[in-house]
Amino acid sequence: MVKKYFYIVFLSLVLSTFQINAFANRDAEQGRSYFPPILMYHDIKVTPINGFDVAVKDFIKQLDWLAAEGYYSLSMEEFLDCVNTNRPIPEKAVLITFDDGYEGIYKYAAPELTKRKMHATFFIFKDGINLNLPGYPYITDKQLKELAANPLFAIQSHTMTHPDLSNSPKIKIQQEVSTSKNFIEAYTQKPCRIIAYPYGHYNQDVLQAVKEAEYEAAFAVADLGLMGYEAKYTIPRIYMGTIMSENNMALFKKYIIEYKNMPADAFKERFGELPR
């Protein structure tokens, strides 16, 4: 009887340890090192006029280098399927994303991506559609609908008006997050499953609103910490721009190859602060 009691206690301890380890492993899988290199582009131009631009010729070199090195561009669906089931991200996978919706994504990025059968996700804010700023025209309604119809591409949320959500009142955050989700779904007739924070900024109110709106993941820029939420709601990205093409794409290659080991302060909004 005593032996049976100790056996039951021992078995309970083993099962408890297994469960604790299982949860720990699951958490580890969803840590920062779980995610693949995620590239964040803005505009693609023949001649860059701002640090966040990427020249067409350099964009082509970057895509060709990824292809030559055996990297695979994940679709947003593939990425989320892995994240939601805790399956490992395929080796040598990257996620290509674009913020805001400048005209260059339609004129230059989309054709080069299509030519190579590479996937990309475009984060669009509603008020940017058809906007024509000096030097920075945005995508038109007609162009965006063409991109949305291309199976290689996903159109996802970047809010309605592109505010800094981290400096917005709660009601504004909730409206921007939920209304933009509804807008994208009505516009594309496809689920809007992910959001990119304008300026890459977030706080606990933002994270709460995003989760309540039932987004499945969210992209930032800098690694500002988890703030008590799952890592998938604060995913940092590699800030692409003119600096990534210097010295035979040295920094571009470094970020791709060493992404999982890059320190948190490597993910910056401003290029002048990026390590060389």
Structure overview:
- The strands form four sheets. Strands 1, 4, 5, 6, 9 and 12 form a six-stranded parallel β-sheet that branches.
- The protein is globular, with a radius of gyration of 21 Å.
- The protein has helices at about 1-30, 55-70, 75-85, 105-115, 140-150, 170-190, 205-210, 245-255; strands spanning about 40, 45, 55, 70-75, 95-100, 120-125, 130-135, 135, 155, 195, 215-220, 240.
- Residues about 1-30 and about 270-275 have low confidence and may be disordered.
- By secondary structure, it is an alpha/beta fold.
- It folds into two domains: about 1-30; about 35-275, TIM Barrel (Alpha-Beta Barrel).
- The chain has eight helices and twelve strands.
Short description:
With 276 residues, this protein is an alpha/beta fold. The chain is built from eight helices and twelve strands.
